[in-house]
Request: fold
Amino acid sequence: MVSRVIPVETFDLVIFGATGDLARRKILPGLYRRYLAGQVPPDSRIIGAARSAMDKAGFQALVREAIEEFVAADKRDPAAIADFTDRLDYVAIDAKGQEGWPALAAMMRQGAVRAFYFSVAPSLFGDLAERLHLHGIADVDSRIVVEKPFGRDLATARALNDTLATHFAEHQIYRIDHYLGKETVQNLMAVRFANILFEPLWNSQFIDHVQITVAETVGVEGRGAYYDKSGAMRDMVQNHMMQLLCLIAMEPPFHFDPDTVRDEKLKVIRALQPVPAEDIVRGQYLATAGAPGYLADAENPDSRTESYIALKVHVANWRWKGTPFYLRTGKKLRARASEIAITFKEPPHSIFDDASGWRENVLVIRLQPNEGMNLKVMIKEPGPGGMRLTQVPLDMSFTEAFGDEGTDMPDAYERLIMDVIRGNQTLFMRGDEVEAAWAWTDPIIQGWEARGDRPKGYDAGSSGPEDALMLMHRDGRRWREIKA
Ligand code: NAP
Reply:
């Protein structure tokens, strides 16, 4: 199966923060891969902007190095790299100053889509937005792309939305959540709404519970002081996991267009119930032989910030009444694995005398590693020996199903940047969605702060704190094993 590559319109993309980590690791290599795939029109341009003094040749060299480092060897074609870097330019600009802006204004062309990627600290978003207007660089069709974190609570998110709204209309603002750019996440919508099979069962009558896991093996070493101001709830649950939950729980939109989809997601967020203290478990990874624990990594011996969190969440509406969503995410866990598991209920009556092999049907949507889906179904154990039941996975690995096309899927950032150029906001968070997510998150955080709760220690390389196991055990359920 050959995937279709539809070129986008000619664009001028300005990357503020072009010398930074995100630009070097994700944005610029991603743009090169899209160029290689034939999606970038030849006369499009990418303009790097940051304070560092550098000329065009210097920036081209930086991007060549980033491609060498972050693009797979079989995609590093010298002629294509030379062609791609020909499209680059650079302007030294201080978001807070006035220099460089007239030069940038002079670089912009009429007729090309103008997009501005704010890959800088959120404290600079307002300065950039203001100067883009002051210098007449942004037009009514221009788009801005803003990175996470989008605020640290409702008040700061609102302030950020207000600042951006002073200069840009909502349809021009693309708030990135790279989870939404993942192939499997979009497939979740296709599976739900392009098939008749699942939707009739997609409710509390047939679904026992949902588990969403985002497990990482790395700790916060190197960026501990920064992370310590945030924690797993702010860094992962409020944004990424919330978006996954929305796509599972939302009602079918009447049409697949940005605002209709986002309207349905917003309704889910607004239907989330407050989470009582007993349904929250927070943890911090402990030191192991040779590796420091969270407190040392965070450089804060008294830190109460969580590197792990598990929550039981209820969506208070007709569809989901009585079906809990268990969310967990953490650092330094057993394996790097992200998945959504939908566990169905028991059949109402068993006709088999020996049902000892019976297990629940589970639909597992794997985000990483090895993106794909897997539906666990019961069958008869093959061979003689009577009617014995066993569970087998109906497995769809994208890599296997689509061969090279499966391994060669665009990275989330690549896909999302192309969506920005196309002007499609479906996979971006709307301002009211972000605010609603914070409105749910804030009282949870305020609750544990007011109680003075301390996160529980857990062993590095484990599945998280013991108490998190109990969160499910007491409901007669168990977490799925965290494995790569
Ligand atoms: P970074 O490595 O610190 O890079 C920051 C960039 O901003 C540099 O290019 C820096 O270049 C530029 N910059 C700083 N102050 C500036 C100013 N006053 N005017 C113009 N440019 C300025 O940060 P990053 O990791 O790339 O992160 C960028 C954004 O993405 C942040 O909002 C971050 O939260 C978000 N993000 C990053 C990641 C990631 O994996 N790195 C993941 C998710 C979200 P000069 O010093 O030359 O000006």
Summary: The mean pLDDT is 94. The pocket of NAP is lined by residues 16-23, 50-52, 93-96, 119-122, 124, 147-149 (CB under 6 Å).
